[in-house]
Amino acid sequence: NLLNQLGFTNGTTSSKHAISGGLESDTFASRTSGISNHLNLNGTQSGTVQIGSASLNLNLATQSLSDISEAINTTNIAGVTASVQEVEVDGQTTYKLQINGTQTLVDDNNVLQKLGLLEANKDPSRVLQTGQDSQFRVNNIDITRSSNTVSDVINGVTLNLKSPNASTEEAPVQLRIEENVDLVKSSVSDFVEKYNTVRGFISAQFTYDAETQASGLLFGDSSLRSVQTQIQRVLSGVISGLEGDFDTLVSIGITTDRAGLLTVDTTKLNQALDADVDQVAEIFLGKGRSTDNNIRFVNFTEETKAGSYNVNLTAAAEQATVSGSGIINSSSGINADEILTFTDLGSNRTAEVLLSAGDQIDEIVSKINSELRSRISEVHTSDVGNVATSGSVITRDTTFGDIAGANVQTGDTIKINGTSHDGRSVSTTYTITATNTIDDFLSTIENLHNNEVSVAIDSAGKLVVTDQIAGDSDLAISIEARNEGNGSLGFGTLTASTVGRSQLYVNASNDGGQLKLTHENYGTDYGFRVLSNRSIGGSTGIGTISVEDFGVDVAGTIDGETATGDGRYLTGDEGNTNTEGLRVQASLTVAELTTQGAAQGAIRTTFGFAEQIDRLMDSFLDSVNGSLTRRVKSLTNEDKSIQSQMDRIELRLEQVEFRYKNMFLAMERAISQFNSQGSFLSNQLSIMNNSQWGQNR
Description:
Distance between the termini: 165 Å
Structural class: alpha+beta
Number of strands: 39
Strand order of the largest sheet: 18-39-20-35-36-37-38-19
Low-confidence stretches: none
Strand content: 25-35%
Radius of gyration: 42 Å
Number of helices: 13
Helix content: 25-40%
């Protein structure tokens, strides 16, 4: 080992990422590609290593994290299981190998060191400088990062930190982010185009052709005329509260022609954009700005009024914070192994961090942050193991007929029920033949869960189901052998041996040699508890009595109106005359509030033309009180009334038609009777005439 030969290491190794009852590897970008692809390894990449009580060959040139995990599990090391865990830090998803059940590892050809399971112990006399996180301030907010390249503080901006300037009392670096002027021009053009389209539609409704007497469908509609008038009134107005020369559409080159359409003077618009692109944007948008660096405008709602509102704070937001008692020895570190148990009081997630004797403050901080940022996969283990007729524990290749004492019969079934990672119910029935292998059965379980779980057999012949999706999990599984052939097959009950969890948002830091734990979020909704298995002396200083803390919400008023704090955010209460829904962020600390006092400047809100039009549209289209909504309801009611009248007229016509038809039928019957009577009378007259003629003769 070159580092050992050069004297940087002392020839021994120790666990690099120890956890309670096990250890973890470094993180890698993929769980399925070969390790050498990530490390650009040359030379020997394989070796026969020892994990727990067993030896196995690992080849980093061909094996991935998943392959190594499976190799460990199929070796059936007593009490040892392996899984691949997903880790998400700053939006990046990575993976690491987790081994539970042992911390006894023996390396070969540095294979385990390359995986990050072990690390060479350094010679303390060779340490020239201990690393530390970068610390900087943006807009008066203190920030700590583990890198000098920071891309998650300002949206779309990457900061490259070069050298400190606070200690030399140099002026802060001023960062200017240029606006996309072409995008602003395009947005202005879109606004004008959309307005002209609406204006053209309204004008078309008011046209009338005297010759053809044709008109728009809504010709003369007062509601539509009111909409047009109110829009024109807004666009011809002045935006109050803006600073500078641009507060009307005319001032930036947008005018109205004789047809009422908007036109853009491109030269004048470009001049305005060159002079102050931010103010041009404010002419259109709803904006807010603060007069105090510690107060930032966030947003408002349609209930907020435009104006200038004083912000007064009575309490600054705080993060939940716990510190160890005393300074950790800078040379010898803690004097014995220690386990810290963390509980996030909001999510109820728990995590254990295993520290080793001799760990110094920076190593303790690193171990805590690494573990708490990890996402753990849930693992369920059965409480009953099975052995083969040979006397050894079952393997994936064991047939059901070879399970000792099970007396499995062809046609026996196993009912599998459960829920997936995201809570979906799953269920199936597996039918056994004496020649089916356990591998067939385990594959059925994996397929039932869409391969979102892996199923293995541990060294005791028990089933081990591992969620392949790390984080909080609803995974559950029950296996019922029905033994229709009067056998005694059973797998017992599967319960969570490792509870899946997402990361805990608690950060550890070195506070002058003292361990400091801080929740990432502010406010009373966020808190945590921490407990050590060791008393305070010679340890992290946390102690065996659990310590917990919650954050504090900011408190205060806006414009003298009540407001509700949520972490660092203060929002005007519902029902406020001016500030309902107005939301600001207060970034100052308790000490700064004490020094500066309650008054924290003012928030000025302005509503540009687009914002006013948007609010106007809301008033037109409100589902209850909107003017156009009411008009549509009125027209709908008129339509229903007309339809009702038409229905009544049609009913009357049907009744008249029915009556006339009946009259017609009656008349036809009468005519028929008249004809019949006429024929009878004619016959009678004929007979009488004939009779009389005979007598006369």
